[in-house]
Structure formats: C-alpha cells, structure tokens
Amino acid sequence: MILTLVFPLLLLGGAVLAAQSSINGRLGAKVGVLASAWLTFVIGAVVTFLLAFFFEPAHSATLFSVPKWQLTGALFGVVYMLAIVFAVPRVGTAAATVAVISGQLIMSLLVDHFGWLDNDRLPLDPSRLAAMALLAGALLLIYQSNARRERQTASA
Amino acid sequence: MQQIATLLFVLCAGMGLSVEAGLLGPLGEQVGHLSATLSIFLVGGLLLTLAMVFIGRPPLTTLFQQPRWLLTGGLLGPIYVVVLTLTTPLVGVGMTMVGILCGQIGASLIIDHFGLLGSERRAIDGYRLLALALIFLALWLIY
Asked: Measured between CB atoms, does A74 come within 8 Å of chain B?
C-alpha cells in the first residue's frame, strides 16, 4: 500500500534528474559548460542551505566536526556535472542518462565486491556479472540508435 | 567515434557519482541528509566559482540574458534529495533506487522523443525500447 503512494514520488525524483540534465545541457550549449555547472551548484547550495537551516533536525555531529575526507564527495559531483553538461547536447539526454546509470551501477557492484569505502564485502556472483553485461548492452543499443539516426540525417 | 569517447567519459563520471553516494550516505547519517547535500553543493559551488574567476571570461551577462527556465537546473537537484530523504526510511534503499532509476530513464527517453526542454528530437525506436528492457532486467538481477 505504502509503495503505491511512494512510487509516483520516486518516479518524480528520477524525472527531475533527467530534466535537470536536459536543461543544464541546453544552457551549457549556450553559455559554456563551466558557467552552466557553476550556476547549478550555486543555486543548489542556496536552496539546500535554506532547507538545512530551517528543516534539518539537530544531529550530534556537524559538517565541521566530521573527518575531512568525508567531505570530498563534491569533487566527484563537480566532474559529473561538467560531464553531463558537455555530453547532453552531443549525444542526447537518454544516452547520457544511461551512461551515467551504467557507470553508477557498475561502480557500486565493484565497491560491494571489494568492500571499498568501509562497505561490507558482497562478492560478484553470476547474476551480478550478467547485470553488468546487460548494462553495457543497453548502452551499445542507445549508441546504435543514435548512430542510425545520424546516418539517416546524413543521407536525407 | 567521438560519441563513444563522450559516452565513456560520462560512464566514468557515473562511477564517480557512486563514490560520492558512498561517501554521502554515512555522512548523512551523522550530520543529517540535508546538511550532507549542502556540503556537496557548497564545496562544488565554491570550487567552480574559483574556476569561473580564473579560467576564460565568465559569460555572466549572457548567462542572465537566458530565459529564466533555463536557469532552474539548480532547483531540481534538491527536489531529488528531499524525495530520497523522505522515501528511503519508508521503502528501503533498493526499492528507492529502482524507482528513481525508472523515473530517470523513462523521463530521459520521453524528453528525447518529444524534444522537450529545448533538446534535439531523438525518437524512441526498437533499439531504445530494447535498451530499456535490458536495464530493467539488470536492475532485477541486482536487487
């Protein structure tokens, strides 16, 4: 029951990510990759600051007291945003989205397998290996779809 | 060829995103999920501000001449974070990720198909439907 209520919310959460890639890609094509990524992070910081300031329940630790290596996630976030803004105008939203997701899932399977970042070890089994192959296949298909479209535009 | 290089680059960026999530989860448990997300946007925003000042000519005037809806990308990321924060305790991480990925892939195909949000039209064809099926199969195998 709760899933029927929550699932549309989750779909919305995913849809805004795709919309964000698309909007940022479009903006990046007009004003440059760096400026588009910059604006996204600055607006994001303003909005999350307001949310955290007013709605975050008190925790025993703060951002200033945790070990500094825990704060390095932003480096990866910046690279991701630059990559998306660069890629979307060139390969389309779907291809970029599928590539990101494949990278995420493949990496998370590797993290599980080797127990990186203090995670429990969850070795790769045949079904997880098959999943990696399927993701690579999906990416190849979207690439094929783009390549065929380009051939058609070229011949038209 | 250039497409393949771009896709591989994005794939690597996606791998980085998993590392980010791996750091963000435990951090969120300690300081709260909104604060953890704030750290990402704040540090990222400050680093990019430095880059803007020192690399090239910041196109600030052209940036703010764009239609306002083009500048709203930064509002959407926090919506995703709020959804994650609300739903993960209700249905668990696995279900949350599957739901998010369905929404993300579905919406990206629809955006391309209709050329929404100013993107180029790339119609849904057999290849794309098959790719969608493979992704769902992979998700089912993982979770």
From this structure: yes
- pLDDT digit string, tens, across residues B47-63: 999 998 888 777 778 88
Note whether A88 and B6 are within 8 A (CB).
no
Q: How many CB atoms lie within 10 A of CB B112?
A: 29
Whether A94 and B44 lie within 8 Å, measured CB to CB: no
The ipTM (two decimal places) reads 0.84
CB contacts of B78 in chain A (<8 Å) are 44, 47-48, 51
Instruction: Please tell me the number of Cα atoms within 13 Å of A50 on its side-chain side.
Output: 8
Written as six digits, the tokens of B49 are 């501000």
Q: Which of A78, A86, A113, A114 to mutate to test the interface with B (most CBs of B within 10 A)?
A: A78
Q: Could you give phi then psi for residue B113, rounded to 5 degrees?
A: -60, -45
Q: Which of A6, A27, A107 sits opposite B66 (nearest CB)?
A: A27
Q: What is the dihedral of CA A37, A39, A44, A47, to 10 degrees?
A: 180
CA-CA-CA-CA torsion sign (A132, A17, B40, B94): negative
- Work out the percent of chain A whose per-residue pLDDT is above 90: 4
| Of residues A144, A111, A102, A86, the one with CA closest to residue B12 | A102
Note the pLDDT tens digit of each residue in A90-145: 888 888 888 888 888 888 888 888 877 766 777 778 888 888 888 888 888 888 88
Can you tell me which residue has the tokens 């389309």? A92
> CA-CA distance, B103 to B105, in Å (whole number)?
6
CB atoms within 10 A of CB B67: 10
**3-class SS of residue A64:** coil
pLDDT band at A50 (very low <50, low <70, confident <90, very high): very high
Q: What is the pLDDT of residue B47?
A: 92
A156, pLDDT greater than 70: no
